[in-house]
Structure formats: structure tokens, C-alpha cells
Amino acid sequence: MSPEQNPFPNDPDRRAIWDMLVHRDIDAFLAADWSMTEPDFLADGFFGLNAGKSANPDSWRLGFPDLATYRDEWLRQAAETATTRYAEPLRAALFRATNLHFIEVSGERAVAHKKFDGTVAKADGGVDTLNWQTLYFCTKQTGDWKIASFVGYMPFPMGRGV
Question: Which regions of the chain are under pLDDT 50?
Fold first, then answer.
């Protein structure tokens, strides 16, 4: 199976969550176009924890107290990525490094376990290392899955980190 292929073709809920958190997220990030992914978020009440790649939950911080704060950081990272020259196609590399195979769905709630584990070759001979994981807490509203919250930038695998 290609890394760009949705692993949940026969499960409408998991298929929709995977499309939102992998396919649409990667394409929006590479385009640095927040409008492509903004509808995927539950704006009212959204927040995100930043684990800072630490395995110690006591050090995790409310890095994104609202959607606007997360949007600004997402756009900053997208702009930084856009200025980096890569030695390989970035889209394919991001799909290759992304794993979202475990999604727990219970009624209109879901927890998606997204892992980043890989490298992207840079044109200068270096590499960008992608090595963290995020838990996304999703809710279904009027038939569409939305990101309500997340705990991001956790070490992958857990047990490593500062």
C-alpha cells in the first residue's frame, strides 16, 4: 500500500479522519494555506497541549490555548518549511514519515494516534528528522469530523525525550 493511500477504504469514519489529519493536513501545510484545513477544527473551545518532545506530562504546556494561537504557529512552520530546499519531493517524504493507523471511534468521539517517524533529505546534504507523535481528539458534528483538541509533539516512541 502506498503511504498516500488511505488505509481505511471501507470504514467511513476512520477514512474521513485519516483524510483530514494526513492527506488534507499535508497538502494544506505544503501550500501554507490555512484555509484548506481551518474547517477541520472545532473553533469554539479548541486548545492544544505542547509536550515539547518530553515524556514527562508534568512538563507539557498549554501551548495553544485557542485556535488562533495554533494557526499562527502552523503558518510559521509552513513558511519556514517553504524556504527550505529539499533533495527529494517533500510531499512524498511527509506521507512516508506519517503513520495514522490507530483511530479509536466511539459514537461521535474519536482519538487518532498520528506518528511522525522519518527523515527528509535536504539539498545541502543534511536531513530534517521527523520524530514525534500527536493524539488528536475529534468530534463529529453535523456529519463531519472536527479536531476539538490535541496533545502534540510527544516523543516517539514514548519513554524517550527530555
Answer: 161
How large a percentage of the chain has pLDDT more than 70? 98
Q: Which grid coordinates are listed for 105?
A: 471511534
For residues 82 and 91, what is the distance between their CA atoms, to the nearest angstrom? 12
What single-letter amino acid sits at 22? V
Map grid coordinates 466511539 to a residue.
106
> Quick one: pLDDT at residue 158?
82
pTM, entire model = 0.94
What is the dihedral angle through the alpha carbons of 119, 132, 49, 146, rounded to the nearest 10 degrees? 70
HEC profile of the chain: CCCCCCCCCCCHHHHHHHHHHHHHHHHHHHHCCHHHCHHHECCCCCEEEECCCCCCHHHCEEEECCHHHHHHHHHHHHHHHHCCCECCCHHHHHHHHEEEEEEEEECCEEEEEEEEEEEEEECCCCEEEEEEEEEEEEEEECCEEEEEEEEEEECCCECECC
CB 100 within 8 A of CB 117: no
> Which cell numbers hold the place of 19?
483524510
